[in-house]
Write a structure and sequence with these properties.
- There is one protein chain.
- The protein is of the alpha+beta class and 282 residues long.
- The protein has eight helices and ten strands.
- The strands form three sheets. A six-stranded mixed beta sheet has the order 4-7-6-5-1-8, sandwiched between helices. A two-stranded antiparallel sheet has the order 2-3.
- A hairpin with a 2-residue loop joins strand 2 and strand 3.
- Helix 3 crosses helix 4 and helix 7 runs antiparallel to helix 8.
- It is globular, with a radius of gyration of 21 Å.
- The C terminus is likely disordered.
């Protein structure tokens, strides 16, 4: 039976749910080597995992962070079995509608294979997908490579945490991860801290800065809500700091304007907070 290829997402940054950190970065994956892929609470993603076979190849993807992208390669080491965390009331992804006798959710075991030599950011893949020809820095993927990336579910419907990857797209990702060709100011880390990529070269459709999405969609794990929230929070903090250091006379003169700025910044944080995903792998 031919090998099937997949992409599976996890959060590289700490986030506490029910008192537990749902973080699972490439560093964590490399450390544990093999892990059950628990916590998936989306029917389509669950069904895809139930199709997986031992030996299938997996792209390990950093999600719900400032710099989402492909951080490592893995493989399926155990086929789907009931996700026992679903009936554990203390678990972050407890589901009261399922139990041992009637399991609703399933998981597979995945085994770490190797890190990507070059972290492949979503921003780069989106730039390639939007181009008519490969950007000069990654011209080695050719026109067929561009076509393969355009067809990836990751760039066409990125929200799903488990995705099928066609073999031609898998081969292009392997080339990108091995050869690079775009500027990286820092190496990928367990916190997903990778610089915004910029392909090398100039000309139409080439060397354009990679642009990260500014969408804020409660169901997507690749939006830059975290960055937007930090910016809004910084704005609020700046206003408060300035107000605290002003003299009392200066406060009276500028109090109304400062309160207006703070209110806008706080509203921005609250609005973004409502839109953010509360899921690690769903």
């Amino acid at each position: 039976m031919p090998t099937t290829h997949w992409l599976m997402k996890a959060e590289p940054d700490s986030r506490i749910v029910k008192g537990k950190d749902v973080k699972f970065s490439v560093d964590d994956f490399e450390s544990v080597k093999t892990t059950p892929w628990e916590g998936v609470r989306n029917a389509e993603a669950r069904n895809l995992m139930k199709e997986m076979k031992v030996g299938d190849k997996v792209l390990f993807y950093h999600s719900n962070c400032k710099n989402p992208g492909i951080a490592a390669f893995a493989e399926v080491s155990k086929e789907a079995y009931p996700d026992y965390t679903a009936w554990d009331a203390s678990h972050p992804y407890y589901d009261p509608k399922t139990d041992k006798e009637n399991p609703k959710w399933y998981m597979v075991d995945a085994t770490f294979v190797r890190r990507a030599t070059h972290f492949v950011p979503l921003s780069l893949l989106r730039t390639i997908a939007a181009a008519d020809e490969p950007p000069e820095g990654v011209s080695y993927i050719g026109d067929d490579g561009v076509k393969a990336i355009k067809g990836m579910a990751l760039v066409s419907r990125g929200r799903l945490s488990v995705q099928r990857v066609e073999e031609d797209a898998w081969k292009v990702i392997e080339k990108l991860a091995e050869h690079g060709g775009w500027e990286e100011e820092s190496k990928p880390t367990g916190k997903g801290k990778v610089s915004t990529a910029r392909s090398r070269g100039k000309g139409k459709g080439k060397g354009r800065p990679v642009e990260r999405s500014e969408r804020a969609n409660k169901d997507t794990e690749d939006a830059d809500d975290g960055q937007q929230e930090e910016a809004a929070a910084d704005a609020t903090t700046d206003d408060l700091t300035v107000d605290e250091t002003k003299s009392s006379g200066r406060k009276k003169a500028t109090g109304s304007a400062s309160r207006g700025h703070k209110r806008k910044a706080i509203d921005a944080v609250e609005e973004i907070g409502l839109r953010r995903s509360t899921r690690a792998r769903k």
